[in-house]
Specification:
By secondary structure, the chain is α+β, with helices and mostly antiparallel strands. It is 52% helix and 10% strand. It is built from 29 helices and 15 strands. The strands form four sheets. It has a five-stranded mixed beta sheet, sandwiched between helices. It has a five-stranded mixed beta sheet with strand order 6-13-12-10-11. The longest helix has 26 residues, at 252-277.
Length: 767
């Protein structure tokens, strides 16, 4: 009894220390945000610091539930939330609300004892949730091997780079839940099969079903793990039937009993999934498959999704391989030592099979090794799936460390020497991942800063409650959060045709067409495209037809469709009615300085011509020198590598030109001079080359350099001008100013070399 109590104390202390390690390494240091602060130092005290755009969706939900729990639902469609509706009148994505519910419940409990805010809770919560993964990992491996295996597994879990990046302070997204909850699910299900006592089996089976429900309430794509469980279960039953361990083969009736337990758990999980999701689960699976395969002729909606991007095998050479620094697959999975030991762990299981029970082999090979092996091919799909690999990797390595440690203890009579060698083995495995994490120290910059907060606050104060906001989809969730207004796209929008029209509204040079696209997306999403495709031969023709009729009035639009495309008046009327609303609410467009960096994505979607998918489009800005006193000084153009502005002087004139890194002068097709937001001169030199905006804003000079095909786009022109026939500038926010006039702020909007890329925000109202 004394030994058991001592071991329990050791286990509890180790678990608490590993959890503390997980929390400490997730707290950003003072260079980005003080450990005692909850808000970014660049913002006002009421501007929430969150490091990921998707976090604002769940923060908004947490705030709503903290005020009124009666509005909670485990899952809701986007059409049930005004701020995300309509992306289409069809269901377009689901929102799982388990994470914000947890935050709201924690808030309600803690608020009884203190004045803690819901913002403080969402800032810290995921740091704690991810670190709690140490508990199931340690207990699971500890009971199957020893304290060394449990410790190694738990530390690898809490320091795993893919989850560290998604659970630092200020990250409030479902990714942190995808570490602890799946671990609890798999560990409990495996333990239920492993256990011999009926009561214990029932308890662990109930816990497994509970954690599956929690996963389903937290992550829309939970059914991936349901698929894993089915595969694990099949492999486990086969192993129970045919593998011979220390206790021989299991009797048929015992294998049948375990198969029955597995089948019962799978059925319960299916019932829970359909209870929570209903028929929407079918739509969720369909959308995932569609997005992955991209079967239509519109641009690929996943092309610029970072989490689905390719990832190199290794970065930073030997250092990256050993210390797990860098962004390669080997780096982020913990380094070559960890990966090599994972393979060794599988070998050790088979080497020890004669002294292991059949259930031990089945539950560990079936639920850990197979889990690790079947996730490996997913690495070719994108960086997102590193998360699915590093969880079984931590379990597998810990299992191997425990088995090898037991072998060392069995071979060496000197117990102290055995402990020393086991500790050395743990250090060898953990050195790279732990040191790599400490060197990496994730300190993400806030995605949402002071200038965005000011702009969103202005919209919240002055726009109508039914107003809509158009901007690029990256910014949708935090505009919803701070403006409390409907946006036309957000982080949950994955639709190639929707991106095509959204980006087209930003890159077209026709203000009337831009506003008309805005109206269409706000009214019916891209349903009008689906209607047009019923009557027109292909997607390209349908999209071209819509772009032609959108700036027209309804009757001329109907006549145009009938005449041009030879369709019936009834079909033409259906298309026009769906695309052009009669009632128009207030609509606003956000133009932010960091959209310059998005020009690659915007041009891919907005200039897509259904035949060529790549566009060499450039956009950059500069403000040095702020006053052109030294006309021979070269100025770097951020956003266009290798180009500089040169303001020259000859005998008669001053003129602006460009030079490349070799001093050559690239073609400048056009120079546009702007004074205080108004175009005063437009010099066209040729049909090819760059367009250069030279902007004088109350004595402060700034420059825009861009490719000719986007020179007159809404994105570029609204950066330079105060407005146009359809857009009126109503607000301008510039870093360092609480509020500036909306008439002439372009130079300050661009900032200088020390200004962050996302410093400026301009707000336009559709007339």
């Amino acid at each position: 009894m004394r030994y058991i109590n001592k071991q329990v104390i050791i286990d509890v202390v180790l678990i608490l220390l590993i959890i503390a390690l997980g929390i400490v390494i997730r707290i950003p240091d003072n260079s980005s945000i003080g450990s005692a602060q909850v808000y970014n130092e660049l913002t006002d005290s009421d501007c929430l610091y969150l490091s990921d755009p998707d976090s604002y969706l769940y923060s908004r939900k947490a705030r709503e539930y903290s005020e009124d729990l009666s509005i909670f639902s485990f899952v809701n469609t986007r059409t049930e939330d005004f701020m995300m509706n309509p992306v289409s009148t069809k269901e377009n994505g689901l929102v799982t609300n388990g994470l914000p519910l947890i935050a709201a419940l924690v808030y309600r409990i803690l608020h009884l004892f203190s004045d803690i805010s819901i913002e403080t809770i969402v800032y810290y919560l995921n740091m704690i949730i991810a670190s709690l993964s140490a508990i199931p990992v340690y207990l699971y491996i500890r009971r199957r091997t020893n304290v060394f295996g449990g410790m190694v597994s738990a530390i690898l879990a809490v320091v795993s780079t893919p989850f560290l990046e998604h659970s630092v302070g200020g990250f409030f997204d479902t990714d942190a839940m995808l570490l602890t909850v799946p671990l609890c699910l798999i560990v409990c299900l495996s333990t239920a099969i492993y256990s011999e006592k009926r009561l214990k089996k029932n308890i662990y089976l109930g816990l497994a079903v509970f954690f599956f429900a929690l996963l389903a309430a937290t992550w829309e794509t939970f059914y991936i793990y349901f698929g894993f469980i089915v595969i694990f279960s099949i492999v486990t039953v086969i192993e129970l039937k045919f593998v011979k361990g220390e206790d021989g083969r299991l009797p048929r009736e015992k294998v049948g009993l375990e198969a029955l337990y597995i089948l019962l758990s799978v059925i319960l999980m299916m019932l829970i999934a359909f209870f929570m999701y209903g028929g929407t689960i079918v739509d969720s699976v369909r959308r995932l498959v569609t997005n992955m395969l991209v079967t239509n002729s519109y641009p690929d909606p996943t092309k610029y999704i970072v989490e689905l991007s390719d990832i190199p095998l290794l970065e930073n050479g030997v250092e990256g391989a050993l210390l797990a620094t860098g962004s390669g697959i080997i780096n982020k999975l913990g380094g070559v030592v960890v990966l090599a030991f994972a393979v060794l762990s599988i070998v050790l299981i088979f080497l020890n099979r004669k002294r292991l029970t059949t259930k031990y082999i089945a539950c560990n090979v079936g639920y850990i090794a197979v889990w690790f092996i079947i996730t490996l091919p997913l690495l070719v799909v994108g960086v997102r799936f590193l998360q699915l690999v590093c969880i079984p990797l931590a379990l597998l390595v810990g299992l191997g460390v425990g088995l090898l440690s037991d072998m060392i203890m069995g071979k060496i009579n000197n117990k102290i020497l055995g402990y020393i060698l086991s500790v050395f083995l743990c250090i060898l495995i953990l050195f790279g991942p732990v040191v790599g994490v400490l060197l990496r120290r994730n300190n993400p910059s806030p995605f949402y800063n002071k200038t965005f907060d000011k702009a969103c606050t202005w919209v919240n104060d002055y726009a109508s409650e039914n107003a809509s906001v158009l901007t690029w989809w990256d910014y949708g969730y935090f505009i919803q959060y701070a403006s409390a207004r409907h946006v036309l796209a957000d982080g949950g929008t994955f639709d190639g045709k929707y991106f095509y029209f959204l980006a087209h509204a930003l890159l077209t040079d026709d203000p009337s067409l831009s506003a008309a696209i805005f109206n269409m997306l706000d009214f019916s999403g891209v349903d009008s495209v689906d209607v047009a495709e019923k009557y027109l031969p292909d997607s390209k023709t349908a999209s071209e037809a819509l772009l032609n009729i959108l700036p027209m009035e309804k009757e001329p639009g109907i006549t145009y469709l009938v005449t041009k495309y030879n369709i019936s008046p009834e079909a033409a009327k259906e298309i026009v009615t769906t695309a052009k609303p009669d009632v128009k609410d207030e609509r606003y467009m956000f133009i932010s300085r960091d959209m310059i960096a998005k020009i690659g994505a915007l041009s891919y979607y907005g200039l897509y011509d259904f035949e060529h998918e790549d566009y060499n489009v450039s956009l950059g800005v500069s403000t040095d020198p702020t006053v052109p006193a030294f006309f021979s000084e070269k100025v770097g153009i951020r956003g266009i590598d290798g180009l500089s502005i040169v303001i020259k002087k000859d005998e008669n004139n001053e003129y602006v030109s460009l030079v490349d890194e070799d001093g050559n002068t690239p073609d400048v097709a056009r120079i546009i001079y702007v004074e205080n937001g108004v175009k005063v001169r437009d010099d066209k030199k040729s049909s090819k080359g760059y367009t250069l905006y030279c902007i004088n804003d109350n004595g402060e000079y700034s420059f825009i350099v861009c490719s000719a095909n986007i020179a007159d786009s809404m994105l570029v022109s609204l950066m330079a001008f105060n407005g146009n026939a359809n857009y009126e500038r109503v607000y301008a926010s510039v870093l360092g100013d609480n509020m500036t006039g909306a008439d002439s702020v372009t130079a300050r909007f661009f900032g200088d070399n020390d200004t962050p890329e996302n410093a400026g925000v301009l707000v336009y109202k559709v007339k």
